[in-house]
Amino acid sequence: MIARRMGLIDASGIRKVFDLAASLKDPVNLSIGLPDYDVPDLVKQSAIDSIKAGRNRYTVTQGIPELHNAVRAHLAKTRGMEARHLIITSGVSGALMLAFLVLIEEGDEVVIPDPYFVIYKHLTHLAGGTVRYVNTYPDFRLRREALEAAITPRAKLLVINSPCNPSGMTFSRAELQMAADVAKKRDLLVLSDEIYDTFSYDDDYASMASLYPRTLLVGGQSKSHAMTGWRLGFATGPREIIDEMTKLQQYSFVCAPSFAQYAGVTALTSCETRQACDIYRAKRDLIYNGIKDAYDVQKPNGAFYIFPRAPWGTDEEFVEEAIRNNLLIIPGRVFSERATHFRISYAAKDETLKRGAEILNRLAQRRT
What is the reported pTM? Predict the structure, then answer.
């Protein structure tokens, strides 16, 4: 009865953690991947005004012109690029699904740095492709030899996620230029997932789309403006790909939510995100300094995640013990082919981060 393709997709490991934690009272929650602040009031009011004004019908499939103009201006300012071909999507997840179904077919290989955001693997399988993993351990950096080793004649797409979920690492301009050189040499398209671009802490942010013309860039305001439930994203890249994604969206999502599109214009044109970046940089420092003496851990320079190595046992054994101690974290194998690390989201109140660090430091002293 059920299509065979569904057997290639695992149930969410994050959901399994939530199932284990269902009986906890007032847990220290460092698992959830969304900002701990709310949508800006200006954006909320823009959505309300749009609904009251009757902007509640379908929009054109590719998105309203006002939002296209706002996204183009944003990318020109932050990336120095001209986004000539553009589609507004139902979240970045919607953009990714459209892109994988448009680009990948039976026999194609998708090259993904490990660790990775879990949807990339499952969308590859859904589209009939095969994943080739690039080893970035132990420091989660891109290296030419590892990247080239993962590329076979069947490789079609290289996925770059910077800043990265779950490691929190942002690839440097030199790393991205190396990846661009390899992609050009091997005739690969690049998909650059830049949903966490607001949260880049230590260096000037570099975008793959600014370095390599054959890049499909996806992004949105879910993380920067806490609009995770509004399902608003975008994709820009080669015209033939955007045209096909628009065609497929017409027969799937139809369009992004209308009220969210109008509010998205306000988010991009009237709401500064620098303060959020500064606040989350301080949260990064708080959790990193709180656990670095007890854990093998890289200091992240982007997003709002940190990815320590479990000090004993497998990732799942360690996470299960953490949950028994009222701490919610995510096992690393959700995001990796290795069972050695775990993910912390530091998108939480400072007091919650301090409580989490105390529990983690106690757990690090145990051995099983």
Answer: 0.94
Pick 41-270's CATH classification: 3.40.640.10, 1.10.287.470, 1.10.10.10, 3.40.630.30. 3.40.640.10
How far apart CA 239 and CA 236 sit, in angstroms, is 8
Look at the alpha carbons of 29, 336, 125, 221 in this order and tell me if their dihedral is positive or negative: positive
For the chain, give me the number of helices (H) and strands (E)? 12, 12
Fold of 4-39+274-364: Aspartate Aminotransferase, domain 1 (3.90.1150)
CB count, 10 Å around CB of 26? 6
The string over 121-152, giving b where at least 16 C-beta atoms fall within 10 Å of a residue's C-beta and e elsewhere, is bbbbbbbebebbbbebbeebebeeebbeebbe
- pLDDT for 249-302, tens place per residue? 999 999 999 999 999 999 999 998 889 999 999 999 999 999 999 999 999 999
Q: How many residues does the chain have?
A: 368
